[in-house]
Design brief:
about 70 residues; mainly alpha
Length: about 70
């Protein structure tokens, strides 16, 4: 299973043959991208639901005032 691993130690793995900054920064950007794309729509949905609830309350108040 691990026959293709070319690193002799964890330190060598983390340094990525001298390209650690490039490799790990790409991983970081990828996970940030995933996080934004997962949490962004959830935040927008929550904000939209609050706005719809606010509009519903206002509409009901306007109807009640018009019926008086």
């Amino acid at each position: 299973m691990f026959d293709g691993i070319q690193f002799a130690s964890i330190g060598e793995f983390l340094s990525m043959g001298g390209y650690a900054f490039n490799v790990w920064s790409v991983y970081l950007l990828f996970f940030l991208f995933l996080l934004v794309n997962l949490l962004g729509p959830l935040r927008r949905r929550k904000k939209l639901m609050k706005e719809l609830q606010r509009r519903t309350v206002l509409t009901e108040r306007q109807r009640a005032a018009a019926n008086e």
